[in-house]
Design a protein that fits this description.
20% strand, alpha+beta, 7 helices, four-stranded antiparallel β-sheet
Length: 206
């Protein structure tokens, strides 16, 4: 593992290569997960950040009736556990599952919070970056709540697409979900979603 891949991630993008080589990589632990393998399960204590180096992770809530809801999808350079490591309990309320072959680097939270492991100048840079990442994660959850507050399927779909367009500042874009994933994210039936997308396409809306 070289520093180039880590510098492409949001957390470590502001660090010089020599700092990554000397103070980040020695504390990283690398692990591969096969498709369908759980990375986090409910009630698991999460003490380390898991930086996604490759692959795709689904954050899901499983319900007692066997159904599930896709909360978010993590891809390369995203961080798993960023919403948990700074809580008092550090206890996960959800499942995190590898949606395909996935490679992560675990990084101990104490390297960021405890002085002496990383030079303070760069430790504060990482803490500031982590705060931004956590804020973005909170906003994503706020957006999803706004989407799910819409009662109709089309209302949810249009709200989601408008949010993506506004975030990216353009009307042509790709979404990070497959059709199955989008249906789960919006908490709607996949067949109904496909039908609605076809209607919207016929109407010239998409």
């Amino acid at each position: 593992m070289d520093a180039t891949l880590l510098r492409s991630t949001e957390l470590f993008s502001d660090l010089p290569e020599d700092i990554i080589l000397q103070h980040i990589l020695p504390y990283g632990q690398f692990q591969h997960f096969s498709k369908g393998q759980y990375i986090i399960v409910p009630q698991q204590r999460v003490e380390n950040l898991a930086i996604v180096l490759s692959g795709r992770i689904h954050i899901v809530h499983l319900f007692s009736n066997g159904s599930f809801s896709l909360m978010s999808v993590l891809t390369k350079s995203d961080i798993l556990g960023v919403d948990l490591v700074c809580t008092r309990s550090q206890i996960a309320p959800y499942h995190a599952m590898a949606a395909e072959h996935t490679h992560v680097m675990y990084f101990p939270t104490e390297a960021l919070t405890d002085p002496g492991i990383i030079p303070d100048k760069y430790r504060w840079t990482l803490l500031n970056r982590l705060l931004v990442i956590i804020s973005h994660e909170n906003m994503k959850k706020e957006y999803r709540l706004a989407i799910l507050s819409q009662k109709g399927l089309r209302d949810r779909l249009v709200t989601y697409l408008y949010m993506q367009a506004n975030r990216l500042h353009r009307t042509t874009f790709e979404i990070p979900f497959s059709r199955d994933e989008l249906a789960s994210y919006l908490c709607v039936n996949r067949s109904a979603l496909s039908h609605e997308l076809s209607l919207m396409q016929q109407e010239g809306l998409i």
